């Protein structure tokens, strides 16, 4: 953009700059903000006054030009002042990346349909088995040796070439036999032992073992089995069903499980159908992805990884060392998915625009209220959601979510023979993640997939 500002606006900006500089600068004999221009210029210099005035004037003129030309910038502009002298028009150019043109292809004429899983007896039985496992008890093993699946407590000490090594011993180590939590092959040497018995054996560390001094090396271990317990599953009967809730018998429990699995299957079918529609629309659209959006999305994905590692108590530097990757390697790995995510969000935004899908202010306000309930103690997050930019993010998130629901509902209306699929009601909240800049708001899109939806609650039962 090439912007020209009348000289009288520069005059007004200089007057304002003099007042601001006078307020910030201690000038003998004058109260803050009251020193005349000539005095201020003697203290700070005429160039400083003009620079202050130009900074504010160019910023305001740039914002006005964006509004006038209806431009949504993706990043800050590169501004070059061509003329900035008193008595003359101020002229500057601003170069800024903007959202690319999206040429939509077909996004309705697909030949696929929702696929609903059949809920049969084996699937119901699998849930029953899982519930029995969740409600199992542990009992001491006294009349046999250890076997896979048993809960054991062991003590062990290891040596390499007859010398103990760091991390090679423990007084009490709990483990479930057969899960291979230790060195591959270690637990096989415990099978058949009874509590109080000991075993000694040699074992070779894997070549890719994280501790370089042990990788590929042979060590000797002495192990004592200190405790051994086995899992006792409750009987699959009416009493078990009644212990889980208000079920008359086992048949009632299975009926409830089947109902919930069928409900989940419908919800999952809608979710997967929506994802396929998004993939179809994206594949048929044409656009050039701005590097700045992709790079910002890569950074968002890196932040997601950092958050995931932190929740697991893993240091990022340790993770990079273990995976033998650099930060640049991670970003290279992220880039293909980042490109896909950016393309999806830009395409959905364009479809919503063409469909004339708008979000009412009251819906945005309702989401801000919900965010306040969720993030009320996080001032930074709430300041974002309550800002113009944050509300733009909310609006565009709602817009894309409702667009996907609209496309699915229209297909279902055109195919009345197909079973109805549950969907989010218009007044149900969209789960807003903490601040992630959005493509519609002039930066990277949010991390959450626009087609993703809350899953129905999985089948669960009360545990004792």
Q: Work out the strand percent.
A: 5-15%
Q: pLDDT below 50 for ≥5 consecutive residues: which ranges?
A: 425-464
The radius of gyration is: 33 Å
**End-to-end C-alpha gap:** 68 Å
Number of strands: 8
CATH class assignment of the largest domain: Mainly Alpha
For this structure, the CATH topology of the largest domain is Trigger factor, domain 2
Element pattern in H and E: EHHHEEHEEEEEHHHHHHHH
Overall tally of structural domains: 3
Structural features:
single chain, 464 residues, alpha+beta, Alpha-Beta Plaits, Chitinase A, domain 3, Trigger factor, domain 2, five-stranded antiparallel β-sheet, three-stranded antiparallel β-sheet, 8 strands, 46% helix, disordered C terminus
Q: How are the SSEs placed, and which strands pair?
A:
Blueprint: E1 2-5, H1 7-24, H2 37-44, H3 46-68, E2 78-83, E3 90-95, H4 121-134, E4 137-140, E5 151-160, E6 163-176, E7 198-204, E8 218-232, H5 238-244, H6 250-284, H7 291-311, H8 316-323, H9 327-355, H10 361-375, H11 379-386, H12 388-414
Antiparallel strand pairs: 1-3, 2-3, 4-8, 5-6, 5-8, 7-8
Helix pairs in contact: 1-2, 1-3, 2-3, 4-6, 5-6, 6-9, 6-12, 7-9, 9-12, 10-11, 10-12, 11-12
What does this protein structure show overall?
By secondary structure, the chain is α+β, with helices and mostly antiparallel strands. The protein has three domains: 2-95, Alpha-Beta Plaits; 137-232, Chitinase A, domain 3 (Roll); 250-441, Trigger factor, domain 2 (Orthogonal Bundle). 46% of the residues lie in helices and 14% in strands. The protein has twelve helices and eight strands. The strands form two sheets. Strands 4, 5, 6, 7 and 8 form a five-stranded antiparallel β-sheet that branches. Strands 1-3-2 form a three-stranded antiparallel β-sheet. The longest helix is centred in the middle third of the chain and has 35 residues, at 250-284. Residues 425-464 have low confidence and may be disordered.
């Amino acid at each position: 953009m090439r912007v020209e500002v009348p000289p009288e606006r520069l005059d007004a900006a200089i007057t304002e700059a003099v007042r601001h500089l006078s307020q910030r600068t201690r000038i003998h004999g004058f109260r803050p903000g009251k020193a005349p221009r000539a005095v201020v210029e003697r203290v700070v210099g005429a160039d400083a006054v003009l620079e202050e005035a130009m900074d504010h004037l160019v910023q305001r003129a740039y914002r006005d030009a964006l509004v006038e030309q209806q431009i949504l910038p993706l990043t800050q502009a590169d501004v070059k002042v061509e003329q900035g002298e008193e008595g003359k028009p101020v002229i500057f150019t601003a170069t800024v990346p903007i959202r690319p043109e999206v040429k939509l292809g077909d996004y309705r004429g697909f030949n696929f349909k929702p696929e609903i899983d059949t809920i049969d007896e084996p699937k119901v039985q699998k849930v029953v088995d899982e519930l029995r496992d969740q409600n199992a008890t542990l009992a001491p093993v006294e009349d046999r040796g250890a076997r896979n699946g048993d809960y054991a407590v062991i003590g062990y000490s290891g040596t390499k070439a007859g010398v103990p090594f760091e991390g090679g011993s423990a007084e009490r180590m709990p483990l479930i036999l057969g899960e291979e939590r230790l060195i591959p092959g270690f637990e096989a040497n415990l099978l058949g032992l009874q509590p109080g018995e000991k075993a000694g054996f040699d074992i070779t560390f894997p070549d890719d073992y994280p501790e370089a001094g042990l990788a590929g090396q042979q060590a000797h271990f002495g192990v004592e089995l200190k405790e051994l317990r086995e899992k006792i599953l409750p009987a699959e009967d009416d009493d078990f069903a009644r212990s889980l809730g208000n079920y008359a018998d086992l048949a009632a429990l299975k009926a409830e499980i089947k109902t919930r699995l069928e409900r989940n299957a419908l919800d999952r079918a809608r979710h997967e159908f929506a994802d396929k529609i998004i993939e179809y629309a994206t594949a048929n659209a044409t656009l050039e992805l701005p590097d700045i959006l992709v790079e910002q999305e890569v950074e968002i994905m890196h932040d997601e990884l950092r958050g995931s590692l932190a929740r697991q108590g893993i240091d990022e530097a340790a993770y990079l060392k273990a995976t033998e990757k650099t930060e640049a390697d991670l970003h290279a790995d992220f880039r293909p998915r980042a490109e896909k995510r950016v393309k999806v969000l830009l395409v959905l935004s364009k479809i919503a625009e063409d469909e004339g899908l708008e979000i009412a202010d009251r819906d945005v306000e309702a989401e801000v209220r919900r965010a306040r309930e969720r993030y009320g103690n996080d001032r930074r997050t709430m300041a974002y959601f309550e800002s113009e930019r944050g509300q733009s993010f909310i609006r565009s998130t709602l817009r894309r979510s409702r667009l996907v629901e609209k496309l699915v509902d229209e297909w279902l209306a055109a195919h009345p023979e197909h079973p109805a699929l549950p969907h989010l009601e218009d007044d149900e909240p969209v789960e807003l993640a903490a601040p992630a800049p959005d493509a519609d708001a002039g930066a990277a899109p949010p991390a959450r997939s626009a087609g993703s939806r809350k899953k129905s609650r999985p089948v669960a039962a009360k545990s004792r």
